[in-house]
Amino acid sequence: MRVVVTGGKGFLGRYTVRALEAKGHDVYAATSGKYDLRKRLDCAALMADQHPDAVVHLAARVGGIGDNYERPGIFVYENAVMGLELMEAARKAGVEKFLTTGTACMYPAEARIPMKEVDIWNGRPAFETVSYADAKRLVLAQGQAYQEQYDFNAIMVIPSNLYGPEDRSTHVVPSLIRKFLYATQHNEDAVTLWGTGNASRDFLYVEDAAEGIALALDHYEGYEPLNLGSGIEVPIFGLARTTAAMMEYEGDIRWDITKPEGTRRRCLDTTKASQKIGWYAAVSLKDGLDRTINWQISGGEM
Prior knowledge:
- With about 300 residues, the chain is of the alpha/beta class.
- It has a domain at about 1-165 and about 200-230 and about 265-280: Rossmann fold.
- It contains 10 helices and 12 strands.
- The protein has a 6-stranded parallel sheet, sandwiched between helices.
């Protein structure tokens, strides 16, 4: 298929383009420099210029808890409008399949663990990231409505917390690595991290996520979203200790409990992905961290 990948030069986007090309697809990586997906005319122009059979929508306004907490209006508007306008443009252009990515923070703040796709509407998301979560929920609802009214093949996959080489974001794994690297280089005897450390997350290596997206594009058709995660619940204090040990940092780890840490627990049930598309997370957290740390230490060069 001719596939347009929005955000194709971003962290997940680069890996997804490679995964799709490995499966024989003809891929165009759309960037914000040429198409502003917040604008209806640009979304229509992207469809007219590239004539895609399928669209993988990865472009997003992303950031850590601090960014979400400080700029909720930007997060809800930009993520919602990009999804709404692009899906409508794709529908009008006769695109055969539209895949968009959600986020694990779409789940209710007190969702049962592991989180199942059927529970996504059973409560409100955590307040620290609710704007981003609500924008993604709206795009999920749009895809479901388009399936019902237009028979439009719109699907969503929900990756858990992504990490890996080439990640320059403020998310937890790259932030930890940068902090421990800085502390080591400057002989600091302590590193301060946000929250209590007791919150847990499901960490997914980016190559595994990209493979899941490629498989879902080829093989999944469904009304409900599809979880992509490791299925392993990891407390942040455990992740911090493991990362420090792997980087040979011997100083103290301190926790600033005045700072937010988001949802208390997060771990995705990936049974459906295994059954529907034969996908599972192949890279262990230890191996993934090792690759990510080595990339960061080498100066962030591939």
